[in-house]
Amino acid sequence: MMYKEPNENGRFGEFGGKFVPETLMLPLEEIERELEKAMADPTFRTEYMDSLQEYSGRPTSLTFVKNLTEKFNGAKIYLKREDLNHTGAHKINNAIGQVLLAKRMGKKKLIAETGAGQHGVAAATVAARFGMECIVFMGEEDIKRQELNVFRMKLLGAEVVPVFSGNRTLKDATNEAIRYWVQHCDDHFYMIGSVVGPHPYPKMVREFQRIIGDEAKQQFLEREGKLPEVVVACVGGGSNAIGTFYPFLDDEVALIGVEAAGKGTNTPYHAATITKGTKGVIHGSLTYLLQDEYGQILEPYSISAGLDYPGVGPEHAYLASIGRVQYESVTDEEALHAFQLLAREEGIIPAIESAHALAHTFKLVPHLPKDSAVLVCLSGRGDKDVQAIMNREKGGADIAAISND
Amino acid sequence: MQLSLTTKTMFIPFIMAGDPHPDITVELALALQEAGADILELGVPYSDPLADGPIIQRATSRALKHKMNLPKAIELVPVLRKKGVKIPIILFTYYNPVLQLGEEFFFTLVKENGVDGVLIPDLPFEESGPIRKLSAEAGVACISLVAPTSKQRIEKIASSAQGFLYCVSSLGVTGVRDTLPDELESFLMEVKQYSRVPVAVGFGISTSEQVSMLKNYSDGIIIGSALVQKMEQLGDRLLHEETKQEALNEFQRYAQMLTAPLGKRCTP
Ligand SMILES: Cc1ncc(COP(=O)(O)O)c(C=O)c1O
Known about the structure:
The complex is a heterodimer of chains A (405) and B (268). Chain A is 45% helix and 18% strand.
């Protein structure tokens, strides 16, 4: 492979690094060292792959969506079905990897932050499976939006701590998780849920998510005898996207990350970090973020709790800066429409996060030749979103209206 | 910033610029100087203060409501000077506001406005090369931190420390703590072995008993959350003309009470 980021200082080009209080430098060095040893250890690799298979049900399917392909009359649409994972999203891939690393390091207590609750559920799940304690920080606003996942985490035996600072969403939950970690870094392992945070987290989470792209590439080659022309994934912190893109970085394949445009990127209500953000430091990493002229981080907005984050993984900032990945954005309304469409036409209810990737794909495919193909990462299933969407405006009447036209 | 190793332990208070109101920051600083402060740490409010506990987070929110920001905090320093604050002033700011201002411009402003030192809690040694170079050029101390987890890192951090070396007392964020770790003394002794500059200790210090214990092991004691909490309790009394002086006196007496073991000033 030609692509070699990050360097030994955890920099993807100029992005990334470790901008954390001194207290965390040693714990980070320890994780880095142990990760390197683990990745070079065939028994670790085997344990990870076995858990993915027997516990999470990997490999996940590659599904050709025939009805929608016909409807749009353009490029073929294939979905990489991360929604079929145990717990319903790609987040479990990373949680399994990190819990195995925590176990190797002799840690028995996990800290996690969560937005949509998918990473929190994944962390709580592996904690139960591997006999560890788990404390999950979640913004109070997200707790309201994702009631079902909060209850799931509790069922799984995790402690869910509501966070009341800021906008009470993912950014604030992450702040609080980091503060808790500073206090308890001697015996806790911080399990970050995306390719964000200080080095080595962005690299580690990528290593544990690249299984998505590795499998998809193989499956696609078997089915079509070639690579897809375009690969699309939604970008919150960016873990399902990096996991999907990474094995394609050196190939001639167009890669598109889709951010949340909320109520529109020309309003203050969006989470389109790369599209609208500027360079800065958030949660220990130099990347693009939404901020004001004085460096105060702005509160993002998206209908999707999993994309409602003012930063983005530093590797995405780098890939955007060198033009290797193109970043687009999709509004709440467009995502809701795609959500409905996939449900109606293909019998798959996607996570509202994943619906962002779908919405962009649906805009794209009519303009592409019929012998081309687009691979979309369907990062999770939508069960968690059904209630919020039902409650949204007029008791869900608008959704029914969208689907009937 | 030149600090000599004296036998007396320094009192280094922290307050947040603009909390509870930009107008009162000057008077709080004067009260602290009057209470015997040797160096003032002036906090700059930041939306996401990762190294701070709830008390300083609340101070941050109050200051942000009054639109305090990095350039305004720097420009407050000459005002403090004009009103009689003579002790060195260290600016405590997170890294992102510095980046947005531009690192070079930040030091231009810092120098122009007579700031004596800067402390950036989320800029560890490995990432601080460019900032330390700029601070050296500007003749401004760049204060480094060491923590109980620093271990083998202590030597390299201490060897390049400027101004004073800030020892984080315990694992965790800023706040008030009833107890400090048992290992604190040996940690401070170890740091002092490597340090050419005074060694100060902070995070969690909130009683005169703690001050009394720590004065034998450190050259300076940093008190933040306890003072901010006192200010919070004084609340509106600090803001109204009729009650302000009395509240400021109470604040000063509290600072004196906390630091009495340092033998600074006699109580008025
Ligand atoms: C289903 C799903 N997709 C995507 C995301 C966004 O995260 P990332 O960008 O790290 O994949 C989340 C986050 O919670 C999620 O639950």
